[in-house]
């Protein structure tokens, strides 16, 4: 089975979110730099500088990687950043030489970076894990606030923690919704591609079945019918040889031999002479570029079927119909008119099961890109069959 080729919608969404985490993390670090300097005397310098350096390095790497790295690599980077922030909150207790060094209304400088850590988790983790990360972060920042500002600031700690949780929850929810949207678009795109391939396969099978139907009707049945009714032996023999050539060409895996524009005209003239020797044949040749082989085959076989229908059905009891074949071949395409002044018929009354019209002429020509066929007829007014192909 051929692998799907649908362009991923979730990949650019994930890349954009990772870019927001990286660039936003650098911006938040710059905004919190004054608080970092102000609180540095009250926090262990080893932890303070180590955490700040690891956080800043991770955000810069993500920001740069969002233009260069693969999406999966970006998710790993975001996971590392989320882990750095979580580890920082867990080890903050080791950074304080004593409890209650900050003002009751003050919070450790890294608390406001929680939105970056939560967003990084939303980029890298599954939905449930990202929400668990957010809840755990809320608990840890509440503890870190109490450690920094002393137990007496519990009211301010609750208010500040709830604000941070609500603020971060908005970003996580947006990130989850964006990721889900990308996944749904990917699923829809994949389903559409699978359906398109299924329809294309079915269409190809239908065209092949029609081609086989036309091959049998136009060649095998035509030869058997001509032989059964005692047709001219030379004509029957020529039709039999043409039928064998068509069957051999259908079963061949190789490319058909190239045919020139003049050879196509000769082929149509030969078909006219074999099937309707008394028919008038005229042509206009304006250009040397022939149609593709499949078009030549379709035009030739459709013309032959139109002539056979005319020979079998157009003559009246007391009069033989006059027939003509007009061919025009130029750089734009090929057009063939098969005309007679015979008894005609009501085109609307012809059942679709009649393969001669529905498959061997109309279906065959419409089965190729740029091909067309139309049949105009009225009782007592003759028949005109228009067969052609326009070059794209």
TrEMBL record:
Species this chain originates from: Lysinimonas soli
A single GO molecular function term of this UniProt record: kinase activity
Keyword set, alphabetical order: Kinase, Membrane, Transferase, Transmembrane, Transmembrane helix
Tree of life domain: Bacteria
InterPro entries per record: HATPase_C_sf
Transmembrane segments: 16-37, 49-68, 74-97, 109-134, 154-177
The protein, known as: Sensor histidine kinase
